[in-house]
Amino acid sequence: MQVTKTSAFPLSRVCLALALVAGGLGGAPAWADEARLLMDGPATRITTADVNADAQRMPEDVRPVILSQPQQVQQIVSNLYVRRALADDAEKQGLGKTPEVQAVLQLARDKVLSDAWIEQVRERSRLPAQVAEAQARSLYNAKPERFEQAEQVQVRHILVAGDTPESKAKAEELLAQLKTGADFAELAKANSADKGSGAKGGDLGYFSRGRMVPEFDKVAFALDKPGALSDLVKTQFGYHILRLEGRKPAGTKPYLEVREQLLAEVQDKAAQDAITAEADKLRAAAKPHTDAIRSFSESVKKP
């Protein structure tokens, strides 16, 4: 049993070129009207608009987690202040006028604006709900083998870590309490060495054969009905007590279980088709200078 740890988002690794170009993109973001000052100093100032703009690079599911923590926001604000102060100083020194920096700034600007264009095309190409639903069902019916699943069980467990007489005695005591009606979830929260599942009352969710260590796996799938308790199960992690919560037989997942996934797929395909069509038009209208390209490649090969 491994407890998954979520690593911290690398707030400090941001491309300086994007910071330099941000002020020249034109047009303020929707949230800029109500920007509030978060940090100011002799060099520059940082507002909520800056933090929100910077946060767009974060995954959507991570964004609210990071921005709801004042310490994380303070670190972001501090990083943005230093970055902008450095950028302003670089401009004063004329560093922004060198060909190398100008090229990087142009590429950064191109990337930001082309990404904005792609998002616009994505929104414009969204399929109506009825069309998306029909296509999703068609996908489901065309390849049902995609949605086949092996037998799965849902199990709660309590882990008493260690391989000592004391560990075993504690596990036996907990098992005895469970057999006399103690609440499994509460005992797991209070006693399980697996803190990840322990916080959820020992719930490991549904899993198929082979996901857990062999000793655990064998017992989990041998439990015959919801509520059934195992005896002590010894693994490399210590002593486990298992309780079966549910079982899903092998078979094809029902459409409703995979509907959201399929709707996302058909919308993504519609967007990608629209983006590809536009990009192909642009490429078709352009002429590559093959001699210049070959010459450039040859110059790079030379020591």
Automatic annotation (TrEMBL):
InterPro entries recorded: PPIase_dom_sf, PPIase_PpiC, PPIase_PpiC_CS, PrsA_foldase, Trigger_fact/SurA_dom_sf
Signal sequence, start to end: 1-32
Keywords tagged on the record: Isomerase, Rotamase, Signal
Ranges of residues in domain PpiC: 150-246
Catalyzed reactions: [protein]-peptidylproline (omega=180) = [protein]-peptidylproline (omega=0)
Listed Pfam families: Rotamase_3
Keyword Isomerase among UniProt keywords: yes
Enzyme Commission code: 5.2.1.8
Molecular function GO labels: peptidyl-prolyl cis-trans isomerase activity
Domain of life, source organism: Bacteria
Tagged with keyword DNA-binding: no
Family that this chain belongs to: Belongs to the PpiC/parvulin rotamase family.
Protein name: peptidylprolyl isomerase
Native organism taxonomy: Bacteria, Pseudomonadati, Pseudomonadota, Betaproteobacteria, Burkholderiales
